[in-house]
Amino acid sequence: MKIILTQDVVNLGEEGDVRVVKDGYARNYLLPTGAAVIYNKTNEAIFKSRAAQIEKRKEEKRKEARSLKEKLDELTIQIVVSAGESGKLFGSVTSQMVQEELKKNGFEIERKKIEVATHAIKMTGSYTVLIHLYENESSKVKLNVVSVEELKALEKKAEEERKQKEEEERKAEEERLKAEAEAAAAEATVSEEASEEVAEESTEE
Fold it and tell me: How does pLDDT run along the chain (205 residues), one tens digit per residue?
């Protein structure tokens, strides 16, 4: 069936594009959801009259995609999974898991735009996930896959480092207070000696 897209559809096309799709796909999804209309002379004329508006929206989407790409390229997300001692995953990393982590970081990305090579992620470690943004624009988000045990070890290490830092700060504060006390005592001694000298001079007179 020949249709005209009324909105962007991932892996199919953008608003205003004319496509030929399977009848079932058109009748069961594209047409009922309003994502497309049947191609005919009337609808073609309507979309041609909207060409300038559609192109303006496309340019805005391009700018948004470029801005989003810059932010996503700098992002690193972490997913915790069950794994064996060797680091081999018991389950798999899915696009939904990535979507949820992106959401936690403030990015609302459609799941169908997230490409996770699950067959390539079999061990804990560092990977990249491809995010399709708009047209040919895409981003590669850094992904750290860690096991529950690794996460516990990292949290334990972070806690130990926090305690060590607190102890160092406590010792530094003690040293500071001690130095201040010694300086105050020395100043008091000098002041007392000066007072005694003045008193002796007065007595001699």
Answer: 999 999 988 888 889 999 999 999 999 999 999 999 999 999 999 999 999 999 999 999 999 999 999 999 999 999 888 888 788 888 788 899 999 999 999 999 999 899 988 778 888 889 999 999 988 889 999 999 988 777 776 777 777 788 888 888 888 888 888 888 888 888 877 776 666 665 666 665 5
Secondary structure class of 97 (helix, strand, coil): helix
Total of domains in the chain:
2
Task: CATH number of the domain at 88, please.
Answer: 3.10.430.100
Q: What are phi and psi of 83, to 5 degrees?
A: -150, 160
Give the integer Cα–Cα distance in Å for 110 and 173: 51
For the full predicted model, state whether its pTM sits above 0.70: no
Question: Domain check: are 133 and 84 in the same one?
Answer: yes
Q: What is the DSSP letter of 7?
A: S
The answer to whether 115 and 128 have CB atoms below 8 angstroms apart is no
User: 51-73 and 41-49 helices cross at what angle (nearest 10)?
Assistant: 70
Task: Give the domain extent around 139.
Answer: 71-151
Residues 28 and 80 both lie in one domain: no
SS (H, E, C) 65-91: HHHHHHHHHCCEEEEEECECCCCEECC
